[in-house]
Amino acid sequence: MKHAFRTAGALALGAVALAALPAWAQAAATPKPVVNSGDAAWMLTSTLLVLLMILPGLALFYGGLTRAKNMLSTMTQIGAAACLAMLVWVAWGYTMAFGDGGSFVGGFGKLFMAGVTPDSVSGTIPEYVFARFQMTFAAITLALVLGGTVERMKFAAVMVFGLIWLTIVYFPIAHMVWAPGGLFFAMGALDFAGGTVVHINARVSALVAALILGQRIGYPIQRITTIVWASIGTVIAIYVARALTGLRVRPEVEREGLDLGEHGERAYDH
């Protein structure tokens, strides 16, 4: 009798082990994400370069295109708006852009960076690094929009506008284009350097805002501060863009054509 119980117990344990084998095999076959130190270092460097494009790059560029009495105001708005964008990004921007959700906007599972730990990995880099890099793009996009509203809005209005615009425009667009579950991403959209999320988005928004606000009071009767500051900002932006992506194409690639769909990012390599 005891022998029969032992045999039955052994058979039951064997059945449990056999049932668990597929799960063990799947767990063993799924590689654990590994952080690439080189990728992480370059992403941190790129984050710093984008920050340099905002301050002092864009601040000097836009400030140099305004009149003397408004130069400090313009530079302050650029810097403060960028800081606001970074705070909003940490609070609810990251989860709206890259959280699990629908086709138009992400969910709120990562509100205030919930669930993002030092061990979290995005691709081959820590998720904190990825979130920090994307944070700078949110900041510079808002700063680009303000280029169309200089000398037209009060500081308080700029802050309120930035808060609303980020929430209802930038975060949903970023999710639709860059997030795996996004609408345009699923349709095959390719946006390697922010052409859609940053530049088209910012310029359309700036145009609409400028049309609503109307012409600057006193412009162009009163002269602009100095083109020197705008030139300095341009130089900073150009060299940072060159460091990030390269500006010119190779001669052989130019002969092939610059179709990104056919040649990809290599069309813009040195």
Task: Explain what you see.
Helix content is 67%, strand content 1%. Helix 5 packs antiparallel against helix 7 (195-213). The protein has a single domain (35-268), classed as Ammonium transporter fold (Orthogonal Bundle), CATH 1.10.3430.10. The radius of gyration is 25 Å and the shape is globular. The protein is mainly alpha-helical and 270 residues long.
Q: Class in CATH?
A: Mainly Alpha
Domain count: the total is 1
Q: C-alpha Rg, in Å?
A: 25 Å
Percent helix range:
55-70%
Major sheet: 2 strands, antiparallel
Total of helices: 10
Q: Report the span from N to C terminus.
A: 81 Å
CATH evolutionary superfamily: Ammonium transporter AmtB like domains
Query: Within the CATH hierarchy, at the fold level, what is the topology?
Result: Ammonium transporter fold
Order of H and E elements: HHHEEHHHHHHH
CATH architecture: Orthogonal Bundle
* pLDDT < 50 runs, ≥5 residues: 1-6, 8-29, 259-264
Q: Strand-residue fraction?
A: under 5%
How many strand segments?
Answer: 2
Which structural class matches the secondary elements?
A: mainly alpha
Outline: globular
If you average the pLDDT, what whole number results?
A: 81
Main β-sheet, spatial strand arrangement: 1-2
Give a brief outline of the structure.
With 270 residues, the chain is mostly helical. The chain has one domain: Ammonium transporter AmtB like domains (Ammonium transporter fold). The chain contains 10 helices and 2 strands.
